[in-house]
Amino acid sequence: MCLVIGAILGIVPAGQALVCAWNGSSGDWFDGSKWTNGVPSNGDDVVIGSGVVYLTNETATLGSYTQNGGGLIFSNWMTKLTATNVYLNGGSNTTPAAFTTSQMSNRVWIACTNLFIATGARIDVNGKGYAKAGTGYGPGGGGNRAGGGYGGRGGNYAAVGGATYGSTNAPTEPGSGGGGTSGGDGGGAVLIEAPGGSVTVSGTIRANGANGAANDGGGSGGSIYITCRTLSGTNGLISAAGGSVAGNAGCGGGGRIAIIYDSAAQSNVTGLLIQISAAGETSGSYPADLGTLYFPDNQLLISPFIHSGQWAAPGAANFSFDTLTVSNGWVRFFQDGTSITVTNNLMVVGSAGRVEIGANTYMANGSYLDGTYNLLLFYNAGAVPPALNVGGNLILTNGGKLYMYSIQTNDSYPSYGARVSVTNDLLIYASSRLYPVSHPTNGGSVFFTMSNLVIASNAAIDANSLGYAPGSQSGSNPGFGPGKGAARAGAGYGGFGGNFGNGGGLTYGSTNTPLDPGSGGGTFPGQPGGGGGGLVRVQASQTITINGAISANGYSSGANNSGSGSGGGINLICDLLSGSNGTVSVDGGTTTGGAGNGGGGRIAIIYNPASQATNPLPAIRFSARGGTGGSYPADLGTLYFPDNRLLGETIPHSGQWLAPTNNFAVSTLAVTGAWFRFAIEGMQIRVTNDLLVSGSSARLDLGGANFLANGYFKEYSLNQRFLFSQGTLRLDCGGNLFLTNSASLYVFSGFTNQTTTNNYGALVQVGSNLVVANACWIYPVSNPTNGGSVFLHVGSLTISTNAGINADDGGYVGMSINSAAGFGPGSAGSRGGGGYGGTGGYTGPGNPYGNSNAPAQCGSGGGNFSTSAGGTGGGLAWIQADSTVAVDGRISANGTSVGAANNGSGSGGGIYIRTRSFTGTTNGLLRAVGGASTVATGGGGGGGRIAVWRMYHSYPGAYSVTNGSGGNPQATEGTLVLGTLPMPGSIMTFH
Q1: φ/ψ of residue 612, rounded to 5
Q2: H helices within 560-639, ranges in order?
Q3: Which residues contact 302 (CB under 8 A, 6 or more apart)?
């Protein structure tokens, strides 16, 4: 029994409580010499002002405990401080260092009636949970360089982010360690038992995970479990957040916090201002997820909301607010059918401000991952779509974010899987983001309505990779979605996916009302594919203003052997479209490895043409590019508008233009840095003056809205599909047509119109000069089954060095059905090479056809034997120049070589030139060579036909109509005619 300090008359009545003070040194609580007069007993009042006190066992039941400074260290799991009132006015309460699974664990355990934590005082067990290691300790230990998990998953480096564990409503376990010897330790455990009284927090209670260093994972947040009658405090902090990382590693997941108060008593508490956070760390390349917040009701869900965690209060999933501001808090409403109604304004503010509605299921680790493991993929597995209804404005500002997760659509909800309805305006300010997340295997998506939508500069609606999931990387698996890529192939949507192994994803959906997200790429074992872009579906009764970005791009699988995702869908309906320097994109993912790229998605912008006509044109760039990296490129997606108003004299857009009109006329036209296709059948394009295509990524396609069905027609090496037109397209350029800075022009022919004298499938007329500058190319592509070809009629043609007209593989196709002949008049039987100017090789070869003096036909396809295709014939370069053709580069129409297969190669195609003057340099080359085979049982293609008719000749370059090698007998070479046209006034007739 301690002596009474200051007792009256020096007499101590029996059983009276004493005041015991620590002497300021460091030592064990149970060392009586450290106290003023002995170890405290039941009912005594304890005061610690300085020094470090090690509590190694349970204390007596104290009358009060007051700490003004110093430190109290709880040494093991069963160590407990018990007192009627605990006053933490300064100093800290903590535990020893982090521990392994084989060591003594520890926690801060306080049992009391009332707990008061003043400003500056703290209970601090940051990094005092399970220790870091190569694979972190604890049930949620992070794997190599991955973050630890607990209430939220750890950062997913190398597919081994720490898993979740433990109880939501009674969390008592410590947090888990990050992966790596320099990783972060997990946060510790705090247990506060004050069921009959109050807990007042104006200081801090912290159980954060420690930060990782040197490319190792962060530790997860720990646990804070409080039972009390009421919770109060001003400017306090209760935190079990995950640890950050210094390098290339996974962040730590959030911990678990549960505060169980008496709901009736708590309703009388006023002035409560405590930030409660179980945030996952997101600052690194491999972010982690939120932990959990559990309360007996929703009383702490007030405005301004500053907490962070998965809101796990029991009861109904319907929430109502007059106004709601989420300020630098990160909250997730994950219950099935969550419905949030805000009568007036909803605002999400700050770079840490984030609201998520509907995410409740994690896609299994190691199976479905984004291409670089840096996303944790969540979705909504509920049966009732979540809803957000805002009676005023929905405002995202200063970096605020809103995520909306869709359920799968079904008979009850056929049109959407989540709904956001805003009576007034949806305003997304600088650095802020809105994320609509589609269901990853079903495609159900989010539908937004509002009066006006405004996306400020450096703000976005971001649905990148938020569509259908890629295939599981547990094997060679297809992705998800109607345009899914087969194993290692790219996904399709508005454009087909990269065709690895004949499995590139097909096109699907509506061009003018896209309601589907993009599809996922196919995978290779152990290598994640790319997810498809999501769906951005917005209906605004008034104006949509885009000064920032709307994107639904597919994910790029990078340099591995899995396919990339297709671009998604963007469907905007409004009265007026406005914007300055905005972008709208649904690009397919790109791969640089041995796999297929993702096809472009679909964009449809439906505005009111009458309203649009009376307002300035918006400066917005639209893009639906297909990925073109590696060996297996994908195709463009689609762009749909109600008219051609947004198609000006400069085209920055990429995609197949599908406005419902087949006429387009401008004074001048420039395509710069874009890949643009006039895809409408029978399109008539008139450019009064000059047309310019410029830039390494600039490509202008004329026609090509159709492709041959997968599985029957395919290019031999599977790295492209055959595009063609059905109607006859025409381009009339009254001035010059310039290709500069590595640009390209593709012209896809329709069916030959047998009623016309010229018998062409596409016409390009240039009144003055057609100039093909260095590294630029024109690709005339004949109809692959009909043979209709492109006719170029120009004033003059100039082809620079390392540039030219490339009709290689642009003629009649081969088939991929066993023992099937290719297409074309010179098609061959099984294994035979196609013929044109010369006979194809092997038995049953293709025979010659056409006119050697006027070779206005393309080459024929080779015969098929195995399931891979016979070679494609060379196309046709058909040129008429009123003045001069100058060739310093190349004009080529070679057939496809089938290499070592037992199939026949394609014949050489045709080059037919009529001009006044034919000039060039020794660098020039004209060739129409048959495709080759390296085996005796696959025939080479016959040589093609070249005919050059001119009045004046000064061309010193080369010609070649060589046959392709392979087969027995060998193919024969083609024909070369160099004719002299009569001088003006003469008549010349060919028979």
Answers
A1: -65, -30
A2: 609-613
A3: none
Question: Which band of pLDDT confidence, cut at 50, 70 and 90, is reported for residue 6?
Answer: very low
Mean pLDDT for the stretch of residues 77-95:
97
Q: How far is it between the farthest Cα atoms of the chain?
A: 143
Query: Do residues 202 and 233 touch, judged by C-beta distance below 8 A?
Result: yes
Three-state DSSP at 732 gives strand
Condensed to tens digits (0 to 9), the pLDDT of residues 831-875 reads 899 999 999 999 888 999 999 999 999 999 998 887 677 889 999
Cis peptide before 171 (omega within 30 of 0): no
8 Å CB contact between 410 and 437:
no
| Residue owning tokens 């007051």 | 66
Contact 160, 193 (CB under 8 A): no
Cα–Cα–Cα angle for 804, 809, 813, rounded to 5 degrees: 155
Q: What is the 3-state secondary structure (H, E, C) of 861-913?
A: CCCCCCCCCCCCCCCEEEEEEEEEEEECCEEECCCCCCECCCCCCCCCCEEEE
Query: What confidence tens digit (pLDDT) does each residue in 588-646 have?
Result: 999 988 899 999 999 999 999 999 999 999 999 999 999 988 888 999 999 999 999 99
885 strand-pairing partners: 797, 918
Closest Cα to residue 175, out of 118, 229, 105? 105
What lies within 8 Å, CB to CB, of 599 at 6+ separation is 483, 490, 491, 492, 493, 494, 495, 496, 497, 498, 504, 505, 507, 566, 567, 588, 626, 627, 634, 635, 636, 637
Please give the pLDDT value at position 619: 96
Sheet holding 543-546, edge to edge: 324-327, 346-349, 394-397, 425-428, 452-455, 543-546, 576-578
Instruction: Say how far apart CA 470 and CA 530 lie, in whole Å.
Output: 5
CA distance 991 to 989: 7
Between CA 174 and CA 255 the distance in angstroms is 8
Q: Which residues pair with 62 in a beta bridge?
A: 83
User: Is the sign of the CA dihedral 360, 362, 368, 372 positive or negative?
Assistant: positive
CA 47 to CA 27: how far, in whole Å? Answer: 15
pLDDT at 753 over 80: no
The position carrying tokens 């008429």 is: 880
| Residue whose structure tokens are 């080479």 | 940
In the structure encoding, which two tokens stand for residue 664, read together? 């387009």
Alpha-carbon torsion 504, 508, 511, 512, what sign? negative
Using an 8 Å Cβ cutoff, are 284 and 251 in contact? yes
Q: What is the DSSP letter of 628?
A: -
Q: Identify the CA nearest to 552 among candidates 472, 459, 653, 435.
A: 435
Closest C-alpha among 846, 780, 847 to residue 810: 780
Whether residue 825 is preceded by a cis peptide bond, meaning omega within 30 degrees of 0, is no
| Residue (of 814, 869, 834, 822) closest to 967 by Cα position | 834
Structure tokens at 476: 């060679």
The single-letter code of the amino acid at 602 is R
Residue 517 confidence (pLDDT) above 60: yes
Distance CA 628, CA 592 (A): 9
To which H or E segment does residue 324 belong?
strand 324-327
Measured CA to CA, the distance from residue 165 to residue 155 in angstroms comes to 15
| Sheet strands (E) in 125-281 | 189-201, 204-206, 223-232, 234-239, 256-260, 273-277
CA distance 343 to 386: 17
Task: Please give the Cα distance from 81 to 261 (Å, whole number).
Answer: 21
Sign of the dihedral defined by the CA atoms of residues 796, 800, 803, 809, in that order: positive
SS3 263: helix
Please report the DSSP string for 938-988 in residue order.
SPPPPP-EEEEEEEEEE---EEE-PPPP-SSSPP---EEEEEEPPPTT---
CA distance 496 to 511: 14
Are 209 and 241 within 8 A, CB to CB?
yes
If one counts every other C-beta atom within 10 angstroms of the C-beta of residue 404, the result is: 26
Rg (CA), the chain: 36
